[in-house]
Amino acid sequence: MKPILRFSLSLALAALLGGAVTLTADHHGAALNTLTAEEKSAGWKLLFDGISLDGWRLYGKQEKPSKGWVVENGLLLKQKGVPGGNLITEKKFNDFEFSWEWRLEPKGNNGVKYFVTEARPGAPGHEYQMLDDAGHPDGKVGPDRQTASFYEVLPPATDKPLKPPGEWNHSKIVVKGNDVEHWLNGRLVLRYTLGSAEVKAGIADSKFRNSPGFGDKIAGHIMLTDHQDACWFRNLKIREL
User: Fold this and answer.
1) Which of 89, 147, 209, 227 is paired with 110 by a 20 to 30 Å CA distance?
2) Is the full-model pTM beyond 0.70?
3) pLDDT tens across 39-52, in order?
4) Contact call for residues 131 and 109 (beta carbons, < 8 A)
């Protein structure tokens, strides 16, 4: 049986049995939420073990969420319509490569933020947008609100390889010095330099224009946002550079 078909049948069976089937591999057959020997040697660390929220807490609080975020079948689910709050890593990161896989419900919206500080709640950090570009209203506002954008500031490449809602996307953020990269499904779709004229102009034309410090390089948390749409995460891993 082909891997994609086997994965789809597992999902269907899990749904019929109320989630009783545990998914232990992705659609390529690789074990979920694990590191290869090569990844370990390269310095990668898991940010999600597939069974708990160890290493994460709520933004602005020291506790973990009591609702809205659920770990099931090796996946981290942001439940639809259940306010849970934004999740952040307990640890802060400076230069890093962060990789994760995600999928959205139709018309869904979510995002990953980085350079996150709890001292600026109105604009906590830069956001790698995750969106149903065709189905969510934000997608019609402009490309700087679409998937893989630096949300509200810079758009990604117009030919980015985005997969539709319900399918898994692989994303990556790379920060090295003042240089930042957004990757989507194996392709570099946005590169920018902190402090550049391009970034300053984008911020000046955004809702973050009056947020002191937004756009500066800091050692910060990584955030998974809560927009109350269903969003699934897996294989969250990071290495410090």
Assistant:
1) 209
2) yes
3) 999 999 999 999 99
4) yes
